[in-house]
Amino acid sequence: MAVKTTDSFGRPLVAVTGMGLVTSLGQGKKDNWAALTSGRSGIHRITRFPTDHLAATIAGTVDFLPQSSQGASALTYALADLAAEEAIAESGFSVTDFGGPLFLAAPPVELDWHHRLRLFAQSDRERGWRSLLDAARDANERERFDECQFATIADRLSDKYGTRGMPITLSTACASGATAIQLGVEAIRRGECERALAIGSDGSATAEALIRFSLLSALTTQNEVPEKASKPFSKDRSGFVLAEGAAALVLEPLEAALARGADVLGIMLGCGEKADDFHRTRSKPDGSPAIGAVRAAIADAGISVEEVDYVNAHGTSTPENDKMEHLSLSTVFGERIRNIPVSSNKSMIGHTLSAAGAIEAVVSFLTMREGVIPPTINYEIPDPAIELDVVPNVKREADVKVVLSNSFGFGGQNTCLVMAREAR
Description:
Pathway: Lipid metabolism; fatty acid biosynthesis. This protein has 13 helices and 15 strands. By secondary structure, it is α/β, with parallel strands linked by helices. Strands 1, 2, 5, 6, 7, 8, 9, 10, 11, 14 and 15 form an eleven-stranded mixed sheet that branches. Strands 3-4 form a two-stranded antiparallel ribbon. A two-stranded antiparallel ribbon has the order 12-13.
């Protein structure tokens, strides 16, 4: 029987043929999957920089790389590089001549501290800010200039892996990783490329980031037992835990993947996005933008709500976001949502910000391939206002054919993805 290679709208089905993953739990899909399914947390006390006087002193930082102490820009690149290498190698494409566009989700870039201190040392304090500008324009400081440019990381990745066209760097807050995948899917559907590399990477767990999110009352301050601090959907949840990581996916038309004999890891069925202009950080109380994003993704996938077997939740562990996500899911799925597994990887790895949507997409594909749903750990006090099957504390074997993965970002940027184990 011939495999269907177009969707119900006549568009090319988009296959995933390579995936890479790095989080605080380890490097590579194998180590991460073993940790996630065993319910192990990668959240720990911060040792990279002093945490005196900080409200939050824990994070899911990636501390096992040489670049971990070299600043956010260097670490974000290193994480993206490792994920890309694993994904491209698995796909079977050339790791030096990939031949398709790059879509990179990355955090807003600013001068790392070692650059700031060097700039200050080279300036004349008596001349004030003008001296700082002169020092920054020094021809010998090109490295510093490049590192604080938003597109530099993507440029370096493009040069190394031989991607085509201008590499795209995007930042849609916590939805960034999912948005990068969406851009790749849409480019293939339009026939603009034969393959695409989508990456979400974030190594920006800095002191400044902790302060900023703390000022927004977004971070938990339950520092005493780090591995128990992230508790999505639990009644005693108190905020998210900042984290780092990266994931990469190689996307290509299913027809082309089958023709070259590639191992198809899964299918990207649908993407949905909706903007929320209610508030800079808060979601609209009625949840309509999130509801719209979920419905748009399911509609774009050409399936019914009854066909979704599992939801990889955004599940940040903040009081408001978890409540809003429950509202959106219960509105879309009705009473059936009580019987659909809905778990959050952030309970174990924290919130990886720009990388979260991509990381959770990779985990969703692994869930379908392995027939195992990772748990939501630290779920000890159920919230009666959130009636969800969160796969509490222990993994669950399940036949999962279709997954909905949610990403709801600050600034009202909401992106949802629908993925399938095989062509439908």
